[in-house]
Every structure is written in C-alpha cells, then in structure tokens.
Amino acid sequence: MARQVFWKGYLKLSLVTASVSLTPATTEGNKYTFHILNRKTGNRVESRYVDSITHRPVAAKNQVKGFPRAEDDYVLLEDDEIDAVALESTRTIDIKTFVPKGSIDWIWYDRPHFLRPEDKIGTEAFSVIREAMKVNDVFGIARLVIYRRERAVLLEPSGKGIILWTLHYGEEVRESIDALEPKMKIDRPLLEAMEKRIGKQVTGWKPALVQDPIQKKIKSLLKTKGDEVSSSKKKTGTKARTGGNVINIMDALKKSLASEKRS
C-alpha cells in the first residue's frame, strides 16, 4: 500500500535541519463504513448545523466558536484569535528536550507516525539526528501543530527511520488506581497454578491475534445481501424500486451472531 503522506516540514536539532514527511503508522482504511440513508427514498441524509431555537440552518460564515461561562452566556472566539496563540511555525519539529529511553509510561502515548526524510540532501542530517539519539539511549520531545491542535510529540529512533508519537496532554491522563488492597496476601498455590495456566497459553506474536472478526462478518454479510439483491433483480426483470436496496445491516448482523451462539 502506498504511503499516505499527510504532513511535510522540517526536523531540526540545533543547526541541523532535514526535510521530512509524516505518515500515520496505523490505518482504518480497511474498516467498513456506512452512510445514513432515508429508508423511504434511499437517498443519503445530510447533517447540518441548525439554530437550537429557530431550527433554521446556519451558514458557515455565521458559525463562531463559543466557550460557555454561564447558562446561555458564551465567550466568543474567532478563528484568527485561536490561531494567534498557536506555535509560530506549523512546519518545523524543533527538538528542544530529550528524555531517557523507556522513561515515559505507555499511558502517555497517543498516535504513532512514520517520520522519514523527503530528499537525499536531508537524509544525512536525518540519519545523524536518529543515530545520535540511539547512541545516547534517549527520545526527543518537541511540539507540533497536527490534527488542528498544538501537541507535544515524542521522537523514537526505529530502524532506518523515526517513530513520531503524539502524546496525551497532562490533563487527559488520570491517576492510576491500585487494583489490590495494600495488605492483601496472594495465595501461593493459587498463584503457581495460574502461572502454569498462563505458561501453557503463551504463543508467538502475530498480527492474526488482533484481527477484527466483526469486519470479516460484515464483509461476508455485505456479499450475501448484495448477491440477494442482484438475484432478485434478475428474477423480476425490472428495476428495483427506489429505496429497495436499503438493508438493515445491524439487524442481519445480530441474527448472524445469534445463530453462531446457538451452534
């Protein structure tokens, strides 16, 4: 699958700069998505912003962001006012800080991206930055405007490239809660029995372990329903009436899952 570059800019460390691009490391492109349709006509349904009192559509030019400070009382902010408090440059990843490798807990990690050099000139500078982090066993910390927000990002050397992780903000991460009582003692025989059980179920990692079975069933369901519609058209020899192809996939999927449970 071809790389879907969605950001281009520069990676900078001191006076060393490299032209780079970002590609999301994960994708939902293989996931089935559905449109909302009018059951009677078969036409797609549109979503629009409407006034909560008049119920009339609001044109884009009249839409403004508002922060509630009291009931029916808002502080209004224009887009240029919000943009003014963002980073001066949205196209440069300027590494200012480094942290020891493995010092950031997993809960802070958000989305992974592949960071790669974009041209031969920048490859050497990119490689020097990556290898220097490897030698020192550190990860880089920077800030970047991405997904319409300014975010803290972590740069992790990986093979010939760098993995750029967006990080959660401090206020987004909750304090951990210990699952066990402080003075609780674990029964040793029970623990040993559980260790043996886990040992028997250990296997090597493979992507098949985390495949989505629901997506496979939806694929099969869509094929079956599509074949039924095609067969129906051939038998009647007439064009299906408007809205005749609208199928309640969720109901059919529930029946399919219920049938599997009974078998």
Structure notes:
10% of the residues are buried. About 3% of the residues have low confidence. This protein starts with 6 loop residues before the first strand and ends with a helix. With 263 residues, it is α+β, with helices and mostly antiparallel strands. It has 5 helices and 10 strands. A hairpin with a 2-residue loop joins strand 9 and strand 10. An 8-stranded mixed beta sheet has the order 5-1-2-7-10-9-8-6. Strands 3-4 form a two-stranded antiparallel ribbon. Helix 4 crosses helix 5.
Helix content: 25-40%
Strand content: 25-35%
Distance between the termini: 38 Å
Describe the largest sheet. 8 strands, mixed
Gross geometry: extended
N-to-C SSE string, H for helix and E for strand = EEEEHEEEHEEEHHH
SSE-based structural type: alpha+beta
- Strand line-up of the largest beta sheet: 5-1-2-7-10-9-8-6
Rg on CA atoms, Å? 27 Å
Mean pLDDT: 82
Total count of strands: 10
Low-confidence stretches: 240-247
Briefly characterize the structure.
With 263 residues, the chain is an alpha+beta fold. It is built from five helices and ten strands, in the order ββββαβββαβββααα. The strands form two sheets. Strands 5-1-2-7-10-9-8-6 form an eight-stranded mixed β-sheet. The chain has a two-stranded antiparallel sheet with strand order 3-4.
